[in-house]
Design a protein that fits this description.
Helix content is 27%, strand content 46%. Helix 1 runs antiparallel to helix 2. It contains two helices and eight strands; from the N terminus they run E-E-E-E-E-E-E-E-H-H. It has 134 residues and is an alpha+beta fold. It folds into two domains: 80 residues, ATP Synthase, domain 1, CATH 2.60.15; 43 residues. The two termini are 29 Å apart.
């Protein structure tokens, strides 16, 4: 964008979740949180389960994202995520049930089942944290 702002697009396989101007964007990168400001160098990265946040219009906004990729080029931040949810879209009861089920399954899981249950627990925890920001 030429106005000194970022243009953020968050896309899942089924819809465009967010398309907005933003002053800053933070992404859950593979090794930690990535902060993106206008003029950022071109970047292509994978995403992990976590919170995607952006600041626009004097307000902070947050989404829960599950895996995917992000590209930054010419002040455009394009996120292709397996799943992305706004706080208002998260079913808190379902997320709590998912967290409880994952915690129970972790007690006996091993090998690849352990990895799956940890991923489910992490997703449920992020969804609950984002939902709490309504």
């Amino acid at each position: 964008m030429s106005d000194g702002r970022l243009h953020l697009k968050v896309i899942t396989p089924t819809r465009v979740v967010v398309e907005a101007g933003a002053d800053t964007v933070t992404l859950p990168g593979p090794l930690g949180t990535l902060g993106i400001l206008p003029g950022h160098a071109a970047l292509l990265t994978t995403l992990r389960v976590g919170e995607l946040a952006y600041h626009a219009g004097g307000r902070d906004h947050v989404l829960a994202v599950q895996n995917g990729f992000a590209e930054v080029a010419d002040d455009v931040v394009t996120v292709l995520a397996d799943r992305a949810e706004l706080p208002s879209e998260i079913d808190v009861d379902a997320a709590k049930a998912g967290r409880a089920a994952a915690e129970a399954a972790l007690k006996t899981a091993g090998g690849k089942a352990l990895d799956r249950q940890l991923a489910k627990l992490q997703l449920a925890t992020v969804r609950l944290a984002v939902a709490a920001r309504r």
